[in-house]
UniProtKB/TrEMBL annotation, chains A, B:
One of its GO terms (molecular function) is DNA binding. Transmembrane segments: none annotated. It holds the Pfam family TetR_C_13. It comes from Flavobacterium pectinovorum. This is TetR family transcriptional regulator. Residues 28-47 bind DNA. It comes from the Bacteria. Keywords: DNA-binding, Transcription, Transcription regulation. Residues 5-65 form the HTH tetR-type domain. InterPro entries: DNA-bd_HTH_TetR-type_CS, Homeodomain-like_sf, HTH_TetR, Tet_transcr_reg_TetR-rel_C_sf, TetR_C.
DNA sequence: GCTGTTTCATACTAATTGGTATTTTTTATG
DNA sequence: CATAAAAAATACCAATTAGTATGAAACAGC
């Protein structure tokens, strides 16, 4: 990787960490250049505005990790019920990229940016839609193989799973404690079994 | 109500509307005094800091409406399954206090303020805990009267319902469209029936 | 109607914000 | 090594931020 591409990536990564922990609005350019040791000139050479950098974070940092942790685990799944559970369980309890007290990066940005920045909304919607479609496909496959009842509606299940995940992440954040995740996962297991 | 108490309430109400639609950080004191037509002197007479006003909003604006829409509908409920559904349905589709594109005020503040303001977290936790306890009690009652299975865990159900609500509100916000609420409610109905 | 307290108005400040203009350094290519 | 372009460094700016200092009305009880 060229040196220039490297500073660009450093900015994105460090800025993401700051934004994930502090929020987008409260992370200033000065914050970013202070922690990255990159000068303002370099920053604005790589990004026209702060918002352009924000969108780049979604597309170049969040999207790949989302693909790895949210899409791959259930893509072409032979046993979606089990894989849904494992995916959510991993995300809540094990994923080293995510921290209890900071919640879900995608959820955070949605809450903060959606009402007044269309570019953010669009980029976030793409991520979320991809997850939704993956879940729907997995449900359809499981219905073919008889692991999930035929009268189950894939879109409903997708929304239900995703919203539950987003919501409980908010609780973890509020309480700064993952014990609510344990309780949640038990009921999530019950719900998944009800689809059989 | 005295004139002074009235200006105080006006500040809280208008500030809440601004914060609900724009976010806490991006709502400035100048914004608030501009829309309330109250001077800065008056504002700082009633509130020592912006954060003190924020906490007051949670306790004096959010708490009462929460009690009305989140607690009362399921308190002492004779048929919790039905009342759970009606409560969530009302909140998502009918409550005039809430708007699709702005999400859930409590959820918004949690996301935005929790990582770096303890007072907010504490005030929000109180609200949320009250809701949780109410749901748990309703489940216990329904188990006594045979409307919900004895092996169902009230705390798990409470977390599951609340997190689903918070999460789907995030989707509505992202899409600025309540059609996801319709889909969600169908699956929510299925889930509730699985408790019988 | 006098007086003290409550309530509000005005003018200000120091710090921070995102962004720009300009210059300097680094790098690739002939 | 010369040169042009890419990349980064420096110094600045206008606007906005939460909060303050100080004084003026409004209002109470006597």
């Amino acid at each position: 990787m060229s040196k220039a591409a490297n500073t660009r990536l450093t900015i994105l990564q460090k800025a993401f960490e700051l934004i994930y922990s502090k929020g987008y609005q409260t992370t200033s350019i000065d914050d970013i250049i202070a922690t990255t040791q990159v000068t303002k000139g370099a920053f604005y050479y790589h990004f026209k505005t702060k918002d352009e950098m924000g969108v780049a974070i979604i597309e170049e940092i969040l999207r790949p990790t989302m693909l790895e942790s949210f899409i791959k685990p259930v893509e072409n799944s032979a046993n979606p019920i089990e894989d849904f559970y494992n995916m959510i369980s991993y995300l809540l309890l094990d994923d080293p990229f995510l921290q209890v007290k900071y919640g879900c990066p995608v959820g955070n940005l949605t809450q903060e940016m959606t009402p007044w920045n269309n570019q953010f909304s669009k980029a976030l919607t793409e991520l979320v839609d991809q997850w939704k479609i993956t879940i729907e496909k997995a449900v359809a496959n499981a219905q073919k193989s008889g692991l999930i009842r035929k009268d189950v509606n894939g879109e409903q299940v997708a929304y239900f799973i995703m919203s539950g995940y987003w919501g409980i992440r908010n609780f973890g954040k509020l309480q700064d404690n993952n014990s609510c995740y344990i309780v949640y996962l038990k009921e999530f297991r019950n719900y998944l079994n009800s689809l059989k």
